[in-house]
Specification:
Strand content: 5-15%
Structural class: alpha/beta
Number of domains: 1
Oligomer: single chain
CATH class: Alpha Beta
Largest sheet: 8 strands, parallel, barrel
Distance between the termini: 39 Å
Helix content: 25-40%
Number of helices: 12
C-alpha cells in the first residue's frame, strides 16, 4: 500500500513545504453525512471508510477534511479509515478550523470564529477526532467574523511553531487577505473553489500564489457533481432537502442548463483519452500552473474510480482550447476560460 512518502502516482511539492502530494486528494466533505446545514444527504459510514481505503490503495496520498464537515463526523470517519493503515503508510491528513457550531441546533449556520482560544480548542479536538499526533496541514476555513486575518493567522503560525501542525494555510481567502497574512509569516497553502464553471480565482489568487511559493489545493473541481457527465436535470430536481445542492443556483434554471451543456462538451475529450468526464474536469483545473492538487470527493469506492485517472491525466493544448471554446459557447460560469487567459 502506498504511503504519503511513496506513491506510484505523479506528485508535486506543496508550496515550500516538505510534502510532495499526488495531483488529486480525497475530499471528505460529503462523508460528513446529513443532519447539518451543508450535508449531502444520507451516507453509509462503511462505504465512506471503504472509499478512503480504496483511494489510498490507488495511490492517493492525502485526505482533506474539516472539523465542520458533519460537525466532527467526517474527521471521525477519517480516523476509522486510518486505523487499519500502518502509521508509516498513512496518507497526509489536512483539516480546517474556524467554524464553530451549536450542538443544540445542528442546522444552524456555524459561526466563523478566529479567536485564539477557540482555534486552540479546535486543534485539540481535531487531533483527538483524527487520532493523529500532528496535523499535516491546518487551514482557516473561512475569513473570521470576529477578527482580522492578521490575528487568527498569527495563531496558526504559533500552532505551527509549537509542532501541533506541520503547515498552515487559508481557505476561501482573497488576495488582500493573503497579502496581510504573508506579512506576518508565509502562507503555505490556499484552498479556493475552482472548476470549469467557477473560475474567478484564476484572475488574482492563483497568480498571487504562484508568485509567492504558496501551494494551491482547489476544491469542487467537478462543481459538486455537475461536471461528472452523469448529472441530469432530473437528478437535480430529485435532490432531497437535506442535500445542500437542492438550494444552490447552479443546480436550477438556466444556470443548470448551461452547466450540463458544458459537461456534455467534455465527453469527446474523455473518449479521446479513454477516461471519464469527471477526470477531464479535474485535469482541467490541474492544467493551471499554480494549482498543486485538486480535492475530489467520493462516497464509495466506485466514485473514486470515476475520477482517479485525473491523478495522471495531462490534457493537450488542443483539449484546453476545446474546453475554452465550450465554456464561451455555453456561457457557463465566470472567470478565465483557460490557463493562457490569465
Amino acid at each position: 500500500m502506498p504511503s504519503a512518502q511513496t506513491t506510484p502516482l505523479p506528485t508535486r511539492r506543496l508550496g515550500r513545504t516538505d510534502m510532495a502530494i499526488t495531483r488529486v486528494g480525497f475530499g471528505a466533505w460529503a462523508i460528513g453525512g446529513p443532519d447539518w446545514i451543508a450535508g449531502w444527504g444520507t451516507q453509509d459510514n462503511a462505504q465512506s471508510v471503504a472509499a478512503i481505503r480504496h483511494a489510498v490503495d490507488r495511490g492517493i496520498n492525502w485526505i482533506d477534511t474539516a472539523a465542520v464537515y458533519g460537525l466532527g463526523h467526517s474527521e471521525e470517519i477519517v480516523r476509522q479509515a486510518l486505523a487499519e493503515i500502518p502509521a508509516g503508510e498513512r496518507p497526509y491528513v489536512f483539516t480546517k478550523c474556524g467554524m464553530v457550531w451549536d450542538e443544540a441546533n445542528r442546522m444552524a449556520p456555524p459561526r466563523r470564529v478566529g479567536a485564539a482560544a477557540s482555534l486552540r480548542r479546535e486543534v485539540e479536538a481535531s487531533l483527538t477526532r483524527l487520532g493523529v499526533e500532528v496535523i499535516d496541514l491546518y487551514q482557516m476555513h473561512w475569513p473570521a467574523e470576529d477578527l482580522p486575518v492578521e490575528d487568527y493567522w498569527q495563531t496558526l503560525l504559533d500552532l505551527k511553531a509549537e509542532g501541533k501542525v506541520r503547515a498552515v494555510g487559508l481557505s476561501n481567502h482573497d488576495v488582500v487577505q493573503l497579502e496581510a497574512a504573508e506579512a506576518l509569516g508565509h502562507v503555505d497553502t490556499l484552498q479556493p473553489p475552482f472548476s470549469a464553471i467557477r473560475r474567478d480565482v484564476a484572475l488574482a489568487e492563483l497568480p498571487w500564489c504562484q508568485n509567492h511559493g504558496t501551494g494551491v489545493i482547489v476544491y469542487s473541481p467537478m462543481q459538486s457533481g455537475l461536471l461528472t457527465g452523469r448529472f441530469t436535470e432530473e437528478r437535480a430536481k430529485a435532490l432531497p432537502d437535506n442535500d445542500w445542492r437542492s438550494r444552490n443556483p447552479n443546480y436550477q434554471g438556466e444556470a443548470l442548463v448551461r452547466n450540463l451543456k458544458l459537461a456534455d462538451a467534455l465527453k469527446p475529450i474523455a473518449e479521446t483519452h479513454a477516461t471519464s468526464v469527471a477526470a477531464v474536469a479535474v485535469a482541467w483545473t490541474l492544467a493551471f500552473p499554480a494549482v498543486t492538487g485538486a480535492i475530489v470527493g467520493a462516497r464509495s469506492p466506485a466514485q473514486v474510480d470515476g475520477w482517479a485517472d485525473a491523478a495522471s491525466l495531462e490534457l493537450t493544448q488542443g483539449d484546453i482550447a476545446a474546453i475554452a471554446a465550450a465554456i464561451l459557447a455555453t456561457g457557463a460560469g465566470s472567470g478565465p476560460a483557460s490557463p493562457t487567459a490569465t
